[in-house]
Amino acid sequence: MPQARLLAWGQRLLGNPAPNKIPDTSLPLDSWESPERAINFGQRIITFGLATFLAWAAFAPLDEGIPAFGAVAVESGRIAISPLAPGRLASVTVHENQRVKAGEVLVTLENFQPLAVLDMVRQQHFAIASKLGRLEAEQKRDSLLKLPDDLVVHDSEAWAREILNSEVKLLSSRNEAFESEMAILRERIAAGEERLKGTRQQLASRQQQYELLNEQVKGLTKLVEAGHTPRNQLLETQRTLVEIGRLTGELETTVALTANNISELRLQMIQRRVETQRDLESQIVDARRDLAMLVEKLKVARDDFDRTIIKAPIEGQVVSLQGLAAGSSVTTGMHLMDIIPEGDRLLIDVQVPPHLIDRVHSGLASDIRINAFPEEPQLVVAGQVVSISGDQLRQPITGQPYYLARLEVTEEGREKLGSRKLRPGMPVEAIIKTGERSFLAYLTKPLLSRLFSAFKEN
């Protein structure tokens, strides 16, 4: 019976009465077989569903977000390797995808001229430094020539040994010459002091003789006056006294001259030392000035030479290696390869349209969809905005402007990743969550925006 009633309702609703039957319009409205009641029931169901949908669309919150596309990248970015000076390629010691350590040689340029200049400046620098060491040792009266620690390494080179040996010999000869001159002066002073000592002894003896003869003359004078002694004896004694007085005066003059000569010799020694020190000080000042100039030249020459040897600035992996053969010419800033840093933090770089940048700021949550894992191609992990570029950037090929937003996978997202590892270059799609709004707002906002601009008068 229920199946027959349903069949009858369907035929009545379609206006297609059962064959060989005349539609029965005598049924009451509240009868289950009445089509009006079925229509009313359907209308109520549709109205209730529409009202429920409108209520959900008006009040149910939906996440609002900005779609952005990008890729996984290291925090510090790729490090571009380029020559700092033009030249000709000598050798490339790495290959694509090779892992390198910091300081490892990547590319070598021909370095004949920079190496020649560096060697010349190094020799000049070593020569002046050796001369300065010799002058300072001579100033201190030291027989040992001392070099700075950074120059000792050159001792193994023939030209360095030759320069150093010549300076050591010059130091020895100049010290010997100075000491010989001082020794001669000291000997002359010692001889003068000996002569002075002997002359003073003679002078003392003559003075004693003079005093004795003077007493004798006084006694003879009294005897002559008394007539006990001949006058000739008195005169002879007086002549002897005068002669001894003359000799005493000569000895006193000799003592004074000898003492003065000794003083002059001592003064000559002092003056010679002062002159030598003054001359050495002047040469040291000149040598230090020349050495300072050569230090700067050496830095420039070493920098020019170092530019011919391109080394890895950081540990990482070589990518985007250009196919250049030995002998190829390279220019300053020419891109040779990139290095992806090893162990650096991985971030998600996405491009945000400029007209939406005012809604993006650091700290916003995001959903990051990663399509690179075949076992789960639609993996979505939680992320967070770390930074926003301060100005517009442009795509190198299309020139399309964008703002660079950097996202970081949160701890929750890392747990969801599990054993899966992100690698630089993996493409991602991100939704940066900027807030919540209803489904009705999603539908009406574009219409309202269009209406607002449509009623503007040109």
What are the main properties of this structure?
458 residues, alpha+beta, Elongation Factor Tu (Ef-tu), domain 3, OB fold (Dihydrolipoamide Acetyltransferase, E2P), 4 domains, six-stranded antiparallel beta barrel, four-stranded antiparallel β-sheet, 7 helices, 15 strands, 51% helix, 20% strand
Can you walk through the features of this model?
With 458 residues, the protein is of the alpha+beta class. The protein folds into four domains: 2-59, no CATH class; 63-75 and 345-454, Efflux pump adaptor protein, beta barrel domain (Elongation Factor Tu (Ef-tu), domain 3), CATH 2.40.30.170; 79-108 and 308-330, RNA polymerase II/Efflux pump adaptor protein, barrel-sandwich hybrid domain (OB fold (Dihydrolipoamide Acetyltransferase, E2P), Beta Barrel); 114-302, no CATH class. The chain is 51% helix and 20% strand. The chain is built from seven helices and 15 strands. The strands form three sheets. It has a six-stranded antiparallel β-barrel with strand order 1-10-14-12-11-15. Strands 2-9-7-4 form a four-stranded antiparallel beta sheet, with no helix packed on it. Strand 13 and strand 14 form a beta hairpin. The longest helix is centred in the middle third of the chain and has 76 residues, at 231-306. The two termini are 70 Å apart. Mean pLDDT is 81; it is low at 13-23.
Order of helices and strands: HHEEEEEHHHEEEEEEEEEHEH
- Strands, total number: 15
Number of discrete domains: 4
Secondary-structure-derived class: alpha+beta
**What can be said about the biggest beta sheet?**
6 strands, antiparallel, barrel
Beta-strand content estimate: 15-25%
Strand order of the largest sheet: 1-10-14-12-11-15
Question: Share of helix among residues?
Answer: 40-55%
Shape: rod-shaped
Distance between the termini: 70 Å
Total helical elements: 7
Rg over C-alpha atoms, rounded to the nearest angstrom: 57 Å
- Contiguous uncertain segments of 5+ residues: 13-23
How confident is the prediction overall: mean pLDDT? 81
